[in-house]
Amino acid sequence: IIISETKLSFLKRGVILDEENNETYLDGVNISCDEVFEMIRSGKMLKTSLPPLGLVEGLFKKLKQEGYEHLIGVPLTSGISGTMQSWNLCAEEVGVDLTCIETYTTSYIQKYIALSAKRLVDEGCDFDTIINRLKDSVKHSNTLLIPEDLDHLKRGGRLTPMAAALGGMLKIKPILKLNVSCQGKIDTFAKVRTMKKAMQTAVDAFAQEADLDENYVITIMHTMAEDSFAFLQEIYFQRFSKCEQHSGYLSPVISAHTGVGSVGIQYIKKV
Question: I want to staple 98 with a disulfide (CB 3.0 to 4.6 A). Which of 16, 91, 113, 184 is the partner?
Answer without folding.
Answer: 91
